[in-house]
C-alpha cells in the first residue's frame, strides 16, 4: 500500500513542481515585458507630452512629464507649413520609388539564388548579405565621389537633388531584401517549381504565377523593410542634399527647426511624431506578415 501511495504521489509532485515553474516563468516574463515596454515607450510618450506644450511652458522648466496648458499650436504650425509639407512630400516620393526599385531587383535576384542553383550561388547569396553589413559611414564618401564623376561625365545634376537618393538608398535596401526573399523562396517546397517546369512553364512564369503569390508574406516583409529604411535614413540625405527644398523629412526637421543654439523643442518633437506615423501605421497592420517573412527561413525542410 505504501509503495502504491508513493508511486501515485510521485507524478502529482512532478505536476505540481512543473506548474509552479511555469507560474514563475510567466511572472518573470511579464516582469521583463513591463520593463521592455517602459524602456521603449518612454521616449515617444515624452515626445508626445513635449509636442503639446508651448515654447513658454517648455522654457519654464516645470515638470517635464506633465502638460499644464496643452496646445495643438505646434501641430497646426507644421501641418500648415509649406516647408514641412515639402519635406513630407519628398520623403513619400523617395520611399515609394525606392520600394518599387528594390522589389524589381530583389525578387528576381532572390529567386535566382534560391531556386536556380548554379556554381557559386551560395557564396554569392552570402556576399549579398555581407554587402548590407558595411556601415553607411564608410560608404557615403566613395558614393559621393562616384556620383560626382557621373555628374561631370553626363552633365546631369545629381548632387543636391532629392532624386539622387533613388540611386543611393537601394544600396541599403536591395541586399537585405534579397536576403529575406532568399530565405522565403528556399522554404517553399521544390515540388512546386518542378511541377511547373514539367508542365512547360518558364522560370519567369514560375516566379510570377507560383512563387510570388505563395511568398506574399516575405514580399510584404521586404517591402516594409525597404520603406522603413528609405523613410528614416538620415546620413545619406544629410550628405547628398543641402538645399531646403530638396531635403527629406528626417534631415529637414533637424536642420530647419534647430537654428544655432536655439532648439524649437515643441515643433521638433511634433515633427518627429508626424514623421514616425507612416511606418507605425504600416507595422500596426502588417506586423504578422513581417514576422512571418523574417522567420520563414528558420522552418526550411
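Sequence proposed for the structure above (301 residues):
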Amino acid at each position: 500500500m505504501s509503495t502504491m501511495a508513493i508511486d501515485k504521489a510521485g507524478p502529482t509532485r512532478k505536476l505540481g513542481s512543473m506548474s509552479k515553474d511555469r507560474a514563475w516563468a510567466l511572472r518573470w516574463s511579464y516582469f521583463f515585458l513591463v520593463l521592455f515596454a517602459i524602456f521603449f515607450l518612454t521616449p515617444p510618450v515624452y515626445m508626445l507630452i513635449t509636442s503639446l506644450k508651448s515654447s513658454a511652458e517648455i522654457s519654464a522648466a516645470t515638470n517635464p512629464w506633465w502638460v499644464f496648458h496643452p496646445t495643438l499650436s505646434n501641430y497646426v504650425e507644421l501641418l500648415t507649413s509649406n516647408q514641412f509639407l515639402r519635406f513630407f512630400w519628398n520623403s513619400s516620393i523617395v520611399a515609394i520609388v525606392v520600394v518599387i526599385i528594390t522589389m524589381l531587383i530583389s525578387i528576381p535576384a532572390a529567386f535566382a539564388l534560391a531556386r536556380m542553383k548554379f556554381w557559386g550561388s551560395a557564396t554569392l547569396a552570402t556576399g549579398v548579405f555581407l554587402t548590407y553589413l558595411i556601415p553607411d559611414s564608410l560608404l557615403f564618401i566613395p558614393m559621393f565621389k562616384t556620383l560626382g564623376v557621373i555628374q561631370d561625365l553626363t552633365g546631369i545634376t545629381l548632387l543636391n537633388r532629392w532624386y539622387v537618393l533613388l540611386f543611393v538608398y537601394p544600396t541599403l535596401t536591395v541586399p537585405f531584401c534579397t536576403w529575406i526573399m532568399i530565405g522565403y523562396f528556399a522554404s517553399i517546397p521544390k515540388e512546386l517549381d518542378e511541377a511547373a517546369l514539367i508542365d512547360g512553364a518558364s522560370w519567369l512564369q514560375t516566379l510570377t504565377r507560383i512563387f510570388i503569390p505563395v511568398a506574399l508574406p516575405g514580399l510584404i516583409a521586404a517591402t516594409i523593410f525597404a520603406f522603413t529604411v528609405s523613410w528614416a535614413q538620415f546620413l545619406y540625405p544629410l550628405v547628398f542634399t543641402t538645399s531646403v527644398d530638396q531635403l527629406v523629412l528626417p534631415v529637414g526637421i533637424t536642420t530647419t527647426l534647430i537654428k544655432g543654439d536655439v532648439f524649437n523643442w515643441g515643433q521638433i518633437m511634433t515633427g518627429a511624431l508626424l514623421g514616425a506615423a507612416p511606418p507605425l501605421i504600416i507595422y500596426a497592420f502588417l506586423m504578422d506578415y513581417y514576422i512571418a517573412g523574417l522567420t520563414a527561413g528558420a522552418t526550411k525542410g
